[in-house]
Design goal:
362 residues, SH3 type barrels, Elongation Factor Tu (Ef-tu), domain 3, five-stranded parallel β-sheet, 8 helices, 25% helix, globular, RNA-binding, tRNA-specific 2-thiouridylase MnmA, ATP-binding, MnmA-like_central_sf, transferase
């Protein structure tokens, strides 16, 4: 196969490309330039699209003996990822920009261009297992549960998965680093990328304030209705947040307060106890079924609402473009805007049933 290897400049994508070469594929490496000003992005290997990352990717491609290109996706990244991120926070929702980036950039824009150029598949360094059974994609958690990235891939369509390769899904991260060392890849010990790449200093609140300005509102006790303070915008908060609320007076029982809900129209941020964070029902929309199998009636499953952690046993039922999820046990910190992924426990590894965008919780 002709395979386009997406090379971020990190150890995972470099080893994934190397394995694609070993498998006998005709491999071409590509690095995505996602910022019009890459020099302003975080350096020191904490991001995934800096100038140094592109250089690391090129060195890895040279060592592997494969052609290498840099594709400019900066404008589309800004429109699809950054502006969506800002808009979701302005609407009182909690987005995951990595999910959006995978969906809109790496497996829509990149894959579309790869197919137009005659490639058969795109290979990435994601930790997830993918198999095609009788033409039907089956996406599962990776062997390395601590590095599993099936959550951020669960929004991919069946057609996108049919043209995707995840060579690292059956490996532990420690083994991948050891392999990179044996291959003399310079990125063998490079730290993992983390945080949001387009927020250089990691200060999400300041980033949003610079773009959305000030929209004052009140901090209100959800139980009594008492006004506890004021704020400069609901975009400065997320459901489940405990620190930095700006409330001077303690709760009557002396226990911490948490953000329970955000109301962007009125500017109200409701706060309360940790017990009030418990969610037992989730209503979600825009479902995607990676294996082309929508739920057929009430289905026992395990749901996940964040990239790492936040799982619970549940019963889910689909009705057209809506999914209703009843949790067997309460889950905290669930917010509109998050993606909920449904898994089916399976001896071969938890199978992704589908994903949807959280619209409301109870």
């Amino acid at each position: 196969m002709r395979v386009l290897a997406a090379m971020s400049g990190g150890v995972d994508s470099a080893v994934a490309a190397a394995r694609a070469v070993d498998a006998g594929h005709e491999v071409v490496g590509v690095h995505l330039a996602l910022s019009a000003k890459p020099g302003t992005l975080r350096t020191g290997a904490r991001g995934c699209c800096t100038i140094e990352d592109s250089r690391d990717a090129r060195r890895a491609a040279d060592l592997l003996g494969i052609p290498f290109y840099v594709w400019d996706f900066a404008e589309r990244f800004t429109e699809e990822v950054v502006e969506t991120f800002v808009g979701e926070y302005a609407a009182g929702r909690t987005p995951n920009p990595c999910v959006t980036c995978n969906e809109k950039i790496k497996f829509e824009a990149l894959l579309d261009k790869a197919m137009a150029l005659g490639f058969d598949a795109v290979a990435t360094g994601h930790y997830a297992r993918l198999s095609i059974v009788d033409g039907v994609p089956e996406l599962r958690r990776s062997v390395d549960e601590g590095k599993d990235q099936s959550y951020v891939l669960a929004s991919l369509t069946p057609e996108q998965l049919r043209h995707s390769l995840f060579p690292l899904g059956g490996s532990l991260k420690s083994d991948v680093r050891a392999e990179a060392q044996r291959r003399d890849l310079a990125v063998a010990r490079k730290p993992d990328s983390h945080d949001i790449c387009f927020i250089p200093d990691g200060d999400t609140k300041k980033f949003l304030e610079n773009r959305l300005g000030s929209h004052p509102g009140e901090l209100v006790d959800a139980e009594t209705g008492a006004v506890l303070g004021r704020h400069t915008g609901v975009h400065g908060f997320t459901v489940g947040q405990r620190k930095g609320l700006g409330i001077d007076q303690p709760a009557p029982d002396g226990r911490p307060r948490y953000v329970l809900s955000l109301e962007p129209v009125s500017g109200t941020v409701k706060v309360g106890s940790v017990e009030q964070l418990a969610v037992r029902r989730i209503d979600a929309d825009r479902p995607i079924w990676p294996s082309e199998r929508p739920l057929d009636g009430p289905t026992e499953c395990v749901i996940q609402v964040r990239a790492h952690g936040g799982t619970a046993d549940a019963v889910a039922e689909a009705d057209g473009d809506r999914v209703r999820i009843e949790l067997r046990e309460p889950l905290r910190g669930v917010a509109p805007g998050q993606v909920v992924v449904l898994y089916r426990p399976d001896p071969a590894g938890d199978l992704v049933l589908g994903s949807a965008k959280i619209a409301a919780t109870e």
